[in-house]
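Progress report, Aim 2. The chain analyzed during this reporting quarter is listed below.
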Amino acid sequence: MKRRVFLMAGAGGLAILAARQYGVTHPAVAAEKFEVTHTDAEWRKLLTPEQYAVLRKEGTERAFSSPLNNEHRAGTFSCAGCQLPVYSSKTKFESHTGWPSFWSPLENAVHTTDDSSFGMARTAVSCRRCGGHLGHVFNDGPPPTGQRYCMNGVAMTFTPERA
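Predicted structure tokens for the chain:
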């Protein structure tokens, strides 16, 4: 196992543990108003515990744990919190990081904020409609954007294209 993958898998486990244990929520996202809103109790009823930890508490799923990492059919990836389409399969690529990765989101689907949690400087990616945490974007992706939107599979659903 490559050191990078090992370190990311460990960091993912720690992040989801911290989210479950301490209720980590990014202040910039928490202060915003969104089209889709629910109380904390409603979110807990609507989402699985894993989805809640990632979408509402900014956790990270364990690397290589999402079936969406190996989803290669044509279709659309949507936010699991509000079903807003956020990524097209046309922009998905194999990053070998253990999380579904895309080189671009759909237009007007996500917003980004600076994230310095856990002593790292990153850019967090959230659903623009419900504020659900989807993952992070990095500047080490393929052309044409050079970006890698590294998303938590548990934060999304997939709908295949109809033939």
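Residues 3-61+75-160 form a domain with the Metal Binding Protein, Guanine Nucleotide Exchange Factor; Chain A fold (CATH 2.170.150.20). The helical segments are 3-22, 27-30, 40-46, 49-55. These observations will guide the mutagenesis work planned for the next reporting period.
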